[in-house]
UniProtKB/TrEMBL annotation, chains A, B:
Span of domain DNA/pantothenate metabolism flavoprotein C-terminal: 202-313
GO biological process, one term: coenzyme A biosynthetic process
SUPFAM superfamilies: CoaB-like
Molecular function per GO: catalytic activity
Similarity comment: Belongs to the PPC synthetase family.
Top-level lineage group: Eukaryota
Native organism taxonomy: Eukaryota, Viridiplantae, Streptophyta, Embryophyta, Tracheophyta
Name the record gives this protein: DNA/pantothenate metabolism flavoprotein C-terminal domain-containing protein
Amino acid sequence: MVARLTPDQKEILILMDAAKGLEVPSETLEAEVKAFFDSAPPLQNSDGITQQLDQFIQRNSSPSANGKARRIVCVTSGGTTAPLEQRCVRYVDNFSSGHRGATSTEYFLKAGYAVIFLYRKGSFQPFCRSLPDDPLLECFKPIDESNIQVCEAYSEAVKRAVVDHHTAVTGGLLLKLHFNTIFEYLQMLQIIAVSMRCIGPRAMFYLAAAASDYYVPWKEMVEHKIQSGSHLLDVKLVNVPKMLSVLRKDWAPLAFCISFKLETDANILLKKADAALEKYKMDAVVANELSSRKEQVVVVTSAEKVLVMRDKSRSDNDVENPLIKLLSDKHGTYIERPSR
Amino acid sequence: MVARLTPDQKEILILMDAAKGLEVPSETLEAEVKAFFDSAPPLQNSDGITQQLDQFIQRNSSPSANGKARRIVCVTSGGTTAPLEQRCVRYVDNFSSGHRGATSTEYFLKAGYAVIFLYRKGSFQPFCRSLPDDPLLECFKPIDESNIQVCEAYSEAVKRAVVDHHTAVTGGLLLKLHFNTIFEYLQMLQIIAVSMRCIGPRAMFYLAAAASDYYVPWKEMVEHKIQSGSHLLDVKLVNVPKMLSVLRKDWAPLAFCISFKLETDANILLKKADAALEKYKMDAVVANELSSRKEQVVVVTSAEKVLVMRDKSRSDNDVENPLIKLLSDKHGTYIERPSR
């Protein structure tokens, strides 16, 4: 396949084709997955990450007061990037503030879960949602030349952020791991899933991160910055293999798995959520539309579709409050299922 | 021009062509600039921004102790995004932490300048470079259930950040304005340049931001999220017009203008810096190579090339320290030039 631009055109043309909807045969998927991981740059400090995970999972696996071991959820959050150059100057990014993941983490902790928070660097952090973008500069002021204090208006929010965050981390209930690229994200997700395999159905995956659909295989990537002048240039992006299938089938076959479907067009949303549920064998798909996602979501399972809306009369009135309650209940039923 | 992929190919192909190096005739550039601004979504709160700028410029234009009015520099910082969809889920981003712009701002303030800091949301802020990514969560700890304090190790850095930042902003010497997209960046740069026109050669532009080279005209952009499945899709990105020419010629003809050239390949860097100096009629181009950019840069002017290196023996040992001194000197000479 060759596509050319005439030399006087000043354009980039991105052609996206996918021809999906067609089921990818599993031998093709396996080859795609292998190609993806083979093409990825090696993950920094993967041994250290595995060690942190093992300790965290072990600590949260002894039976607690009620005689049961704590459930553990891996919450993924924020968008991933797909670099266009090895020494990365340009990349394609997926929009996601990480608000959903950060908020959900707080409610999972409240619901008694231990949380592995796999987040995009710079995205929202748990307990910090009500703070301004630059909390240090915007919430503090000098009293004199060498002393500072919290501004009155943020006093409570700042205190809660620091205290609650610190309590969760030092209490061994919150483990934070960060990524930037789609390569890092999927490599880390695999390590987490494999580490959590030992806890069987007590594990939940809550995949709120917006993973890139396309990537440039690392080895085919140009080393240097793409020159905007001079020559005709083409960069090939290929589909990121559908890792949800692999997670479900190979990495974490016993875990309770929840994926997300975000669309800007409400008309196609539920249909796409249904398709994802079926195709990737998820236990639930959370369907959300970009403009109303902080007000309501639909939890799609094979048995039902449940509209979850935020309760404006409460102080903890996030849509994630009833959402996590519902998912935690479903997870409880899943764990108790006799067939297991 | 039509380029097609066969239906079973799962690829995006990005073709970049530019055919530049060829001079764009000025009537073409004018048309391109008009097309860019016509295609841009309207800037939010442009009246408010103009008002802030006018107040800031006026406040810094009365003669100070030495009988001269303060110089004003506009420092741009961070990368811009080019949205691929109107309700933006995906975009092409340019890498830039904003470290250069934030650091330079501190040294410009030290050198007596008033600074308009036009920065990408989430990029580095002046006086905060030595702090961790999440200063609130990483620099503070609880003393008890409802009181917090700064950790010993960060005590001085946190204090300096809050005090120095607050002093510059409330003292009327630092005005911060933020952008995300290439549309916002260039619209704001135009407003700033036009507002600063009244101070003539006392104005400096220090264009450290990494502006996108390509954009999708807003009106040609798809409204909804690009579907990764289903159909063949093409997105056209066109060249962002070379606004440096317009800044120099129309927006700020009397200002002292400095642009940046960043490359990952040292072999082509100086040649490209020379070309930019000539083509855009800059007063200086700061040439930097990605891997060594915190150690050294080359200031390229029509008269000379000066290698500027950081002085490791000092406490304020950033390369921006000697860089801003050099540029401030050159700006002084420029202001005093008899022909003006």
